Amino acid sequence: MPLRNGLSEELNRQGNEHFARGLYTEAYTCYAKALECDRMTGDQRAMAATLGNLGNICAVSGRRDSAQTYYQEVLELQKILGDEKGIGTTLGNLGNLRADAGEWDRARAYYLESLDLLTKTHDEAAKAVLLSDLGLVAREIGQYDQAIQYYEHSLVLMRRLGNQGGVADAWRMIGRTFLMQERYDDAIACCQTSQSIAERSRDELRTGGARYVLAQCYEAIGRLQDAADLLELVVLMDRKYQLPKLEENTKRLMGLRARLAETDSTPPYRESHA
Question: Is the sign of the CA dihedral 129, 132, 137, 140 positive or negative?
Fold first, then answer.
């Protein structure tokens, strides 16, 4: 029995390593083997952890239906175990699935139920992330003022926790919301703050995220050269890490360069005095 529990733990550890490296097929295989061990031992806590890992791997690889099934099984086990903190986390994961599908009302329902439990269990780190998730839902359904309130609450918690990555994310998300409201000066100020924090932390991905939104701001107000300069840096980062938006951002950069070329080649208007 202890041998099988130890094997499950080792398989989950290997799966986590594969997951961190983006090797999702290999990670899934490890987690599936771990689940076999857990089912044989009947260890419900180990089973819940493994099922959660399987749900996570399916979620990031776009297999939402499978992820939903795994998370639901996790939820049932956590209810049996009385694991309120775990239930809160799983409800948040279910909300993420619905948000990924654009089902904003269902996502918000999961998030609010999760928020209630995480507040009760005083899990401030998870609560800070969840508030940002609720901000996203509010933003996507056009409730911009509420979105900013959620993001600002998340920002306060991230600062208290010393989570500089979370602070940078919160400023970027507030900036994006201001951009959608066409409050360009506010959006630019927030994105510049996000970029500065990420740069100080030497966090390339978050720096790139801030630059991307900042480029959108500059494009919206006609500062095309500034937008193109920033987007070029974003594309270099996308290429370095083989990020999924590489092709989309490359096309956008080419479009900006084409618009700049047209501007440069257009002769200045001269009034005729004939």
Answer: negative
| Inside any domain, residue 4 | yes
Q: What is the mean pLDDT of the chain?
A: 94
Residue 75 domain-assigned (yes or no): yes
pLDDT score of 272 more than 50: no
Nearest to 130 by CA among 146, 102, 153: 153
* Residue 186 in domain: no
CATH number for the domain including 44?
Answer: 1.25.40.10
- Nearest one of 149, 153, 207, 215 to 179, comparing CA atoms: 215
pTM confidence score: 0.88
H helices of 201-245, in order, are 204-220, 224-241
Give the model confidence (pLDDT) of 246-258 as tens digits. Answer: 999 999 999 999 9
Q: For tokens 């359904």, what's the residue?
A: 141
Q: Is the separation of the CB atoms in 181 and 145 below 8 Å? A: no
CA distances for 220 relative to 111, 185, 217, 256, angstroms: 32, 11, 5, 12
